[in-house]
Design brief:
InterPro entries: PixA-like_sf. Helices cover 3% and strands 45% of the residues. By secondary structure, it is an all-beta fold.
Length: 141
């Protein structure tokens, strides 16, 4: 597999979307966070903040975060990913674009690994709340 220097979301065959009920998330709860992917039926825990996504070694993965209610002025962004053995030496997710709503990474090591994601939710740009969710990747060689 050829490694892409700066992959974009369109280069990814694994797509993960994080939907956020901002009213619930602003209370500090991850119960208002719902993750889904395009890897059914092999992924598990869809609809929760603990999604376990099935993928293959060297798959490119995109994460997109969106508020459930688009009419609010709330913002939801991914601020970073914690270290994970899933990324290997060169697969660590990076921000794609400037808004913080889309990130792209690469699964490099076979196994089942936690991939903690740090989120920031704010109400009209005020009252920021930081949350951490811990989905995982089930990477098959």
């Amino acid at each position: 597999m050829v490694q892409i220097a700066k992959p974009s979301p369109s280069d990814c065959n694994v797509k993960i979307v994080i939907y956020v009920d901002t009213a619930k998330a602003r209370t500090g709860s991850t119960q208002g966070i719902y993750m889904v992917d395009n890897r059914a039926p092999r992924s598990t825990n869809e609809g929760s903040a603990a999604l376990n996504t099935y993928c293959n070694t060297n798959d490119y993965i995109s994460w997109r975060i969106l508020p459930i209610d688009p009419d609010t002025h709330d913002t939801v962004v991914i601020t970073s990913f914690d270290q994970s053995l899933a990324w290997g030496y060169g697969g660590n997710p990076t921000q794609s674009g400037t808004a913080g709503d889309v990130w792209v990474g690469r699964a490099e090591n076979s196994g089942n690994y936690a991939t903690p994601i740090n989120l920031l939710i704010s109400e009209s740009g005020r009252n920021p709340v930081q949350l951490k969710i811990s989905p995982s990747l089930n990477i098959c060689g």
